[in-house]
Design goal:
The complex is a heterodimer of chains A (407) and B (147). By secondary structure, chain A is an alpha/beta fold. Chain A folds into 3 domains: 202 residues, Rossmann fold (3-Layer(aba) Sandwich), CATH 3.40.50; 84 residues, Roll (Ubiquitin-like (UB roll)); 78 residues, Up-down Bundle (de novo design (two linked rop proteins)). In chain A, 45% of the residues lie in helices and 14% in strands. Chain A contains 18 helices and 11 strands. In chain A, the strands form 3 sheets. In chain A, strands 8-7-11-9-10 form a 5-stranded mixed beta sheet. In chain A, strand 5 and strand 6 form a beta hairpin. The longest helix of chain A has 18 residues. The radius of gyration of chain A is 21 Å and the shape is globular. The N and C termini of chain A lie far apart (46 Å). The model of chain A has no long low-confidence stretch (mean pLDDT 97). Chain B has 2 domains: 54 residues; 77 residues, Glutaredoxin (3-Layer(aba) Sandwich), CATH 3.40.30.10. In chain B, helix 1 runs parallel beside helix 3, helix 2 packs antiparallel against helix 3 and helix 3 packs across helix 4. Helices cover 43% and strands 12% of the residues of chain B. Chain B has 147 residues and is an alpha+beta fold. A 4-stranded mixed beta sheet of chain B has the order 2-1-3-4, covered by helices on one side. At the A-B interface, strand 7, strand 11 and helix 13 of A face helix 2, helix 4 and helix 5 of B. The complex binds flavin mononucleotide, iron/sulfur cluster and FE2/S2 (inorganic) cluster. Iron/sulfur cluster binds next to helix 14 and helix 16 of chain A.
Chain lengths: 407, 147
């Protein structure tokens, strides 16, 4: 069986997160020192060479993004760490921050140096008040030691809105507004927080950076799958034996994740479906389990890697029941700014409730397919665009569950 | 109990600090009273409607009076399949109220929430932000006894 590979979680269980000396003794903050001895352009080139792609869901090349912000002249720039982690079934950013906060700070400070920003924010979800406390203590230690130099980090707390994980909604929230996504362009690297060039990266993305600077972009580019190299931290939930967090190279297959690391299905039952990437991810049937988890392979099967949540369902689970709950989630979390999502998530939830209650017809299924198709192109942000995916992929792969309930 | 005016004053110098101020007020008072929202609007120099807009946008902030202890039950899919509905039933029975309600003595409020990021131990509830995992109906009484 494949082995775990710990890059992001290299210090997991080995250091005391609230003792900065532990981090430093494990080689911490050396990469920041090294980066500061390089030119800004060389730091960005190294990150680009590593082909590190965002771990927050969109999979954009981190070095390329940094290069945009580097190229803009401005009196002030910002680095934001996206720790909003609202995808149901996901808790990997919490694990990273709770166990190795300085790895995140170091990545942010390297980014700050590279693009020319002296101020960083960590936007941490409101459901993690204990993580906010830990981060603030760790920041105080870093300040006392002077390891961050001129780079300042401030923690802001979210307040229970899933959409605030979307980077422009997050920026609005830090500014003290309702967390509604902005129209793009301009993109944040050009005009973000208070109109200034801003890099938003995920916690896990930042936690990779110090290792890349220390060991080189070529080293990182050689790990896992070629087009999405490195590792991915996954959280296993649902009907799997080991409900746990793992970090694996990105060329690991879904089958290895569930049946190897996950230990298979609970209570000797059979596998039915897995939803990867959080609640907006597609549902995957048995026949596609040999797909590697990397970004592009997942996209190719109509699914996503997303946040790396792995939600496993056994043979007894009613897909319609689960998807109805998910449709309720989107109806609740839609921010209401654009009509296709505001109305679409509401209608989709209504239709799913109708099907679940046994009153649905074949016509309703066709309607959901049509509605989903429109939403995926017409919605303003990724929330509305991805919301129909669980419905559409289950109609494709688990149609029997729907048919059993139709009139 | 700190006065909400003092709390607000601590955040007015923070750019965009109105949400931080709301968090701090709610920590003291468990919800955001109307006067506090109006005072915040004044202090942050935004229209009252805008301050309301912020306060009502976020599910963590409440403009409705709530009990001293706010119990939230995760209803996201992983908790849903793990039996969140049975936990809801047990809590409603133990407290004699329905979801969304507050006990007559003002001690407890029951609310739904989406995933709170403790999905290694579904189903999950939180009380005043503190998570409890692997909750079963027979664990409910023991958990409540600590409040
Ligand atoms: C509805 C929605 C929710 C999102 N939630 C998160 C989140 O919780 N954490 C995150 O890092 N990115 C989230 N994203 C993606 C961000 O918009 C952004 O792409 C990401 O933070 C960029 O960082 P990365 O390139 O390092 O992945 C979300 C996007 C959408 C549309
Ligand atoms: S797609 Fe949904 S969440 Fe996104 S802006 Fe439109 S209404 Fe808001
Ligand atoms: S799904 Fe309930 S805590 Fe994550």
């Amino acid at each position: 069986m494949a082995e775990e590979m710990r890059v992001v979680l290299r210090n997991y269980g080995k250091i005391d997160p609230l003792n900065i000396d532990d981090y430093i003794n494990a080689g911490g903050y050396k990469a920041l020192e090294k980066a500061r001895s390089m030119s800004q352009a060389d730091v960005i080139a190294e990150v680009r060479k590593s082909n590190l792609r965002g771990r927050g869901g969109a999979g954009f090349n981190a070095g390329m993004k940094w290069n945009f912000a580097y190229g803009v002249q401005a009196d002030q720039k910002y680095v934001i760490c996206n720790a909003d982690e609202g995808e149901p079934g996901t808790y990997k950013d919490r694990i990273i921050m709770e166990n190795d906060p300085h790895a995140v700070f170091e990545g942010m400070a390297i980014c700050g140096y590279a693009i020319g920003a002296n101020k960083g924010y960590i936007y941490c979800r409101g459901e993690y008040p204990y993580v906010v406390d830990l981060l603030n203590q760790a920041i105080a230690q870093a300040k006392a030691k002077g390891v961050l130099g001129e780079f300042d980090i401030e923690v802001r707390m979210g307040a229970g809105a899933y959409v605030c994980g979307e980077e422009t909604a997050l920026i609005e929230s830090i500014e003290g507004h309702r967390g509604e996504p902005r129209y793009k362009p301009p993109f944040p690297p050009v005009s973000g927080l208070w109109g200034k060039p801003t890099i938003v990266n995920n916690v896990e993305t930042f936690a990779n950076v110090a290792q890349i600077i220390e060991k080189g972009g070529d080293w990182y580019a050689g790990l896992g799958a070629a087009s999405y190299p490195g590792t991915k931290v996954l959280t296993l939930t649902g009907d799997v034996v080991n409900r746990t967090v793992i970090e694996v190279p990105t060329n690991t297959t879904i089958r290895e994740v569930i049946f190897g690391f996950g230990g298979g299905i609970r209570d000797g039952k059979k596998f039915k479906a897995v939803q990867i990437g959080g609640t907006s991810g597609g549902f995957i049937p048995e026949s596609l389990l040999d797909t590697p988890i990397d970004f592009d392979s997942m996209t190719a099967i109509g699914a996503v890697l997303g946040s790396g949540a792995v939600f496993v369902m056994d043979e007894t689970r009613d897909i319609v029941d689960v998807v109805e709950r998910i449709a309720g989630f989107f109806e609740h979390e839609s921010c209401g700014k654009c009509a296709p999502c505001r109305e679409g998530t509401m209608r989709m939830y209504e239709l799913m409730k109708k099907v679940k209650s046994g009153k649905g017809t074949v016509k309703d299924i066709e309607l959901m397919k049509k509605l989903g198709g429109v939403m995926s192109v017409a919605c303003l942000c990724g929330l509305g665009q991805a919301a129909p995916s669980p419905v559409l992929t289950t109609i494709t792969h688990f149609r029997a569950d729907y048919d059993a309930k139709l009139q | 109990m700190a006065d909400y005016k003092d709390i607000i004053a601590r955040y007015t110098a923070v750019p965009g600090g109105i949400i931080e101020a709301f968090h701090a007020i709610q920590k003291e008072m468990s919800y955001l009273p109307e006067e506090a929202i109006i005072a915040a609007a004044e202090a942050f120099k935004v229209p009252v409607a805008q301050a309301y807009g912020v306060a009502t946008f976020y599910s963590y902030l409440s403009v409705k009076s709530r009990g001293k202890n706010v119990i939230r039950i995760c209803e996201s899919a992983p908790c849903h399949v793990a039996g969140a509905a049975e936990v809801v039933a047990a809590l409603e029975k133990a407290l004699g109220i329905k979801m969304g309600e507050t006990t007559p003595d003002g001690k407890f409020t029951l609310e739904f929430t989406e995933c709170v990021g403790q999905c290694q131990a579904t189903p999950v509830i939180t009380i005043n932000g503190k998570p409890y995992g692997d909750v079963t109906p027979d664990k409910v009484a023991g958990i409540l006894a600590a409040y």
